[in-house]
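Sync notes, pocket subgroup
Present: LS, DG
LS reminded everyone that the earlier model was apo-only. Rerun requested with 6-O-phosphono-beta-D-fructofuranose included. Inputs:
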Amino acid sequence: MKKIGILTSGGDCQALNATMRGVAKGLFYNLDKVEIYGFLEGYKGLMYGNYKKMTEKDFSGVLTRGGTILGTSRQPFKQMRVIENGFDKVKAMKDTYKKLGLDCLVVLGGNGSLKTANLLSEEGLNVIGLPKTIDNDIWGTDMTFGFQSAVEIATNAIDCIHTTAESHGRVFVVELMGHKVGWVTLHAGIAGGADVILIPEIPYDIKVIAKKLKEREKAGKSFSIIAVAEGAIAKETAELPKKERKEKLAKSIYPSAAYEIAAQITEMTGQEVRVTVPGHTQRGGSPCPYDRVLSSRLGAMGAKLIQEEDYGKLVVVRNDDVVAIPLSESAGKLKYVNPKDDIVESARMIGISFGDK
Ligand code: F6P
């Protein structure tokens, strides 16, 4: 008999239910007796003992369902060791785990959530991590679940903007998710045929962007599309020491990066500019077929690790194989876009500007 706890933590994404279904099906199908406890609203459920015992039926019909049937919340890793009003979060989580007599806790989470998963593993709990996030920034895996679904939505947004931009001869700045990394913007930008792609890893020079837009205008192209990541940053800002940089960004009069860029290029080019922000639609709706397959594979591997009692692992994709690496190997590291990556070079080759040169 195995008793398994499961939770979804941090920002949601499209294939959380599909991944939980993969784990549950793998367990129910291969183990004689298994009990699954679903913690509500992420680590909060584990801290406060809010859970529900789940049956096979709970995981039925959820392959295509977006969001998470368990609910989620952000519980910052930085706060985990902080005792608040006498409440010790780590102790509380360990107590719930022990009280239920769990054999393993399965965490579907992004970077912060996986750091906490690693912390709990170091505290002696048996933990398995599954790489969730639309940002695709978890170190150690080629792919996270949620990413391809988000890229589809972001690409669709650019596609829709393309037709209206062309009709009106306007410049559109489309802001996509990614505060620290630019994977969604890079992929959706290329897939949507953006003329300029701005990501946090490649600081931009606004003059270079304006020049590109003017060149297009001169060449008879009356419209342009700029795909901007939330965390895109100007060269002069990126060069500031961390504290000054933070202060400068906090003082900005613009709601986000896209609005500042739009205001600057309006002034510099005289072109008509509009901003579109698809926002959380990028995390919503059904997982795309790629993510459904990926989640089923990741979930199945999670179940296999439990069956083999091989704990303290993060399930990852490497060269299209699903394998497991120690949680500690990935925890605390981000997978950034390398400006020298082949995908960036290819985009430059076909005339896409990254606003840097
Ligand atoms: O981490 C995923 C992510 O979607 C980021 O790309 C985005 O910046 C952030 O979450 C938004 O977070 P929230 O759900 O707190 O608005």
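DG: Residues 147-168 form the longest helix (22 residues).
LS: The domain at 149-283 is CATH 3.40.50.460 (Rossmann fold).
Action: DG to write up.
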